[in-house]
Amino acid sequence: xxxxxxxxxxxxxxxxxxxxxxxxxxxxxxxxxxxxxxxxxxxxxxxxxxxxxxxxxxxxxxxxxxxxxxxxxxxxxxxxxxxxxxxxxxxxxxxxxxxxxxxxxxxxxxxxxxxxxxxxxxxxxxxxxxxxxxxxxxxxxxxxxxxxxxxxxxxxxxxxxxxxxxxxxxxxxxxxxxxxxxxxxxxxxxxxxxxxxxxxxxxxxxxxxxxxxxxxxxxxxxxxxxxxxxxxxxxxxxxxxxxxxxxxxxxxxxxxxxxxxxxxxxxxxxxxxxxxxxxxxxxxxxxxxxxxxxxxxxxxxxxxxxxxxxxxxxxxxxxxxxxxxxxxxxxxxxxxxxxxxxxxxxxxxxxxxxxxxxxxxxxxxxxxxxxxxxxxxxxxxxxxxxxxxxxxxxxxxxxxxxxxxxxxxxxxxxxxxxxxxxxxxxxxxxxxxxxxxxxxxxxxxxxxxxxxxxxxxxxxxxxxxxxxxxxxxxxxxxxxxxxxxxxxxxxxxxxxxxxxxxxxxxxxxxxxxxxxxxxxxxxxxxxxxxxxxxxxxxxxxxxxxxxxxxxxxxxxxxxxxxxxxxxxxxxxxxxxxxxxxxxxxxxxxxxxxxxxxxxxxxxxxxxxxxxxxxxxxxxxxxxxxxxxxxxxxxxxxxxxxxxxxxxxxxxxxxxxxxxxxxxxxxxxxxxxxxxxxxxxxxxxxxxxxxxxxxxxxxxxxxxxxxxxxxxxxxxxxxxxxxxxxxxxxxxxxxxxxxxxxxxxx
Length: 745
Hints:
This protein is an alpha/beta fold. The protein is built from 27 helices and 21 strands. The protein has a 6-stranded mixed beta sheet with strand order 3-4-2-1-5-6, sandwiched between helices. The protein has a 6-stranded parallel beta sheet with strand order 9-8-12-13-7-14. A 5-stranded parallel beta sheet has the order 17-21-20-18-19, with helices on one face. The longest helix is centred in the first third of the chain and has 36 residues, at 2-37. The model is unreliable at 150-175 and 494-503 (pLDDT under 50).
């Protein structure tokens, strides 16, 4: 069935590409004909010609640039009509039949907004995955539940159907549960854009998939606003990209920016690791004050007079009091450090001009004369050294790296931390370089550092000097381009521009011609947002929201100050703190108001496996509602007790047996100390690594596997609440079968 559907959609995709090729060639020919068709010499003829040429060329570019992700959906209506959905609208050039609906067209709306509770006239929604010009996967979602046979699922799920793992006859009880799922999903997907929506759901309840379907719904319903302001999605790890491609086809590259906590700051990707204790300390809100003090530490106070010698002139004596007054005035303004560099430099240079005038017995320079002298003084070596020493341009990553590698600095800026806490935060300085001999500060950053880097960047601001230099250069080049364009127009017209009115006309023409040479920023809003740390997003979605630290939440809120957010998570799976927390404790201090929706049905994990995990849930929070497993698995969980030396070999045998006897993927979840041995034994066994995943409990968050082999569940890391949470996570990753391997000691 799946292969037939893929073949059917491949035929349609091939036809679409044939039409695009012929239509784009036709538009190119029409553009060339339009260019030659007009021989009038009045302005209206030229304008009409230019408009027609631009129209054909724009359509040609649109057609040729639409090949990537051209086709991504199919709607089958109750009236038996079928419509394919894609990036642009296409008709058959001969019959006029609609081959592809533009995703923005009103007729495409149900693709993004229909739910089983409100199918909007749809019988079926098909999501089509492609790679280049090849159809790779097809996922059908039945929205008219009367069409379902006894073993067919319905709903929104991570693999295209919410209940795809069921394989059970539908009963009255099953129908009631499906109604519950559909109602829960509908409330989440259609919640208003303004405000913060919190989705609490236990393991296997489809939190991520439903939240991303909500993103698709919002991007359609509010597309003009969100296509400009962009949606930010904060996911736990890189595997989250797979969800984007399935739930937000074709929108992800233009309207969505995807980050993880390690990549929140553009240009950085933190790979180093913290201890759980250090990560928890870095996440506390009081670190904002620590970072602020660390920034102020880099503003070096002057406690002795400085004598500056300038070539060809007498010395100038700068006193500490003057510089302190200049610094104090700038700091009171609240201007970020790097952005205030220009103000500081200008104030000091102006003071030096005054000292020169006093020394030489002249009035201080003013206007352009003063500007020129400031420029000259700024190029003097001793002046440049003073300015850079007193107000250096700072790098946020360097600030944070120095903070955790300099014990004396950390003691000065974190006096409220205990000596033990400071010891946990410190790490050894490394000698890594970026290949040019410079220390690569970013290479030593951990995910827990990134929110602190963002805090430092907010305080430091951007160095304005390169942008000012770019503007000066652009202004110079603009003047040069206009003069060149004027000379071109004179040569074309074989005239000399001496009449004032004519001069104005030609100047405007020259400016128009110069404007055509200007390179504009043609990046999509998402591309611009991804490179801009200060971008304000139209909506923010956070997956695994229970792992937000206060500092990470602070950084995310900078990107969504309007608080239009969707947070999804399970507070029982929080592993960033050794003590029990609640959503109110986690969010309340910075995000006091939100609407909470619950997902209560677990369609992933069989009853038998949840029964094994439930005691851990009760230990985490006796009052938390248990997600109801919708099915009973065919296999009971297996528990093996072996000697410590046999842990890895036993786990590998269980994983190999699972992929040999069953389809799908096996996940081996183990303490980090055992992973190298497990990986080596899997290699020796010749296991297909595409079908065997290995990692820690923390790394398995958000993932699911057909078979899970869990090794040493009491030694997965963390202490207290965090240790219990990681065990709960690991026990609930399986969709079919679970083997627990523990030692006897």
